[in-house]
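Suppose you are handed a protein chain with no further information: no name, no annotation, nothing but its sequence. What can you learn? This example shows the usual starting point.
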Amino acid sequence: MGKNKLGVSIVGALGNDATLAVVGVEAMKAGLADRTGLVTELADFKGLGLANPDDFVFGGHEVREGDLVRSAAEYVRDNGVPTGELLAKLEPRLRAVSREIRMGTVSGCGEAIRAMASPAARRDAAPLRQQVRDLQADLLDFKKRNGLERVVVVNLASTEPAIDPPPEFASLGAFERLIDANPRNVVPASVLYAYAALDLGCPHINFAPSLGCSVPALDELSRRRGAPHMGKDGKTGETLLKTVLAPMFQARNLRILSWEGHNLLGNRDGEILHHPENNLAKVRDKDIVKKLLGDKAHSRVLVDYCPSLQDWKTAWDFIHFEGFLGTKMRLHFIWEGNDTMLASPLVLDLVRLADLAQRRGESGSMPQAAGFFKTPYLVDEIAFPAQMEMLRAYARKAAETPAAKPSGEGAAKAPAPVKAGAKKKVATKSAK
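A reasonable first move is to predict its three-dimensional structure. Written in structure tokens, the prediction is:
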């Protein structure tokens, strides 16, 4: 392996987003695809020393049996894209990546996810600390086996039930004690994966609506280990349009009276979101209008499962607004897009940005990446144009002070134990 190889360990490694992210990168490596859809390929990000997708090495965790060849074939069968001819050319590459996927855990994931998982993933009987050690052993083995300098972990797993974080999530010391106390169904798997990654110094991206790294205890751990993180819930379609259109109404001083959004999707995520407790986690993140306008307008978001749509998500939005002299007007739009083809390139962007941030000595949350998420951690700005200007401003500053050359420092090493009440490590630079 070359010195600059970057490990990308995906939680939910056989899901649609993960499968097509791998297919896309392997097609790029083979000269069969270009980089359309990657934000980090725009002119604003040239010269930053971003990791080259050609140097990505994929692995990860999954709770279902299978492999990427089968997952990709099922995706083509159900959605018509990409072509079967492309997959045939990539089959040896996909089989090689499949050998890097390990069985994960559904501990604390709720019944909907547990029901679809392999018995090997149902590790509830194992202590939480042991589950973390097992995940970390997999990450360290992945790094060593492939001769990797750095590893970024990305959560693309199905949406867990919505939870209110327990008070122990507010500080690292209390969180560590909670893990050792081993409570049942209190710490969801997404948090265990994030903890395992950050504790090893691996940057973590939570592209799912699940809690993941978006808690103060793990933000504290991120700063101690020098491993940036960001989440949660990738912003790809209807919500993206909301964060573009709502600022337009505000800029023209047009009063939004009501905004109704109805989303239909038929993929595995839609099936999981058919369960009310999982649906709530998604809907909370999608109601951007309420976050922008508070109680000034009626706002509602519905997410329903429509099996025949497969991955072709359809969203219908109705906006009722008021203009000059009390004139009431309406805007309707229908968004029809392939959910995975919109999401997968953003995952690659976030891997590159997280790796860049770590090589720049940054830690904690990554506010510059807010525009990629419905609920960006520790960022109040919701309007998409303003979020993208944050990213461009970061890129301009980064261009003035280039990142260190890719190295293994701080990435996927066996961690020193974190003691409760230990003095907080100060990062050399901060993304804050």
